[in-house]
Amino acid sequence: MRISYLLLLILILASCQSSPLSKRLNGSDSLVISFKYPNTDSVIKTVNTTEKKAIRRLLQFVDGKQTEQYKCGYDGNIIFFSKGEMLLPVIFKYSEEGCRYFLFDLDNKVMSTEMSNEAVDFLKSLAEGNAWY
After folding, report:
1. Per-residue model confidence as pLDDT tens digits over 110-119
2. Could you tell me if residue 98 is inside a domain?
3. N or C: which terminus of the chain carries fewer CB neighbours within 10 A?
4. Alpha-carbon gap, residue 91 to 33, rounded angstroms
5. Which uninterrupted H or E stretch holds 127?
């Protein structure tokens, strides 16, 4: 009986710590990543997946520490979907050291989060045609 109360408490605490972005994208079942020529709308490569591990990983990358909103362009976008409906488009920049970020509009507020080195490596790998998660 005591263990069930402990598990319930852990679940409640875990749900309270979810970020607004995590809550918004929690039901994501697919995503599309478009890599573009820098600062243009011309697509170089598109990657899509329904693999839950890849979706969770990208969500973790995007849900990073908030940062200033850089104005140094973009390299592409990630669009999260649930049952065919777009949940959130996310713009990203990874190719320029010192200016790496994710940018998105959450509840009518433009937000920018830091891009980790792991996220940079992940996106570079996908852009090069490697499909590892």
Report:
1. 999 999 999 9
2. yes
3. N
4. 10
5. helix 117-127
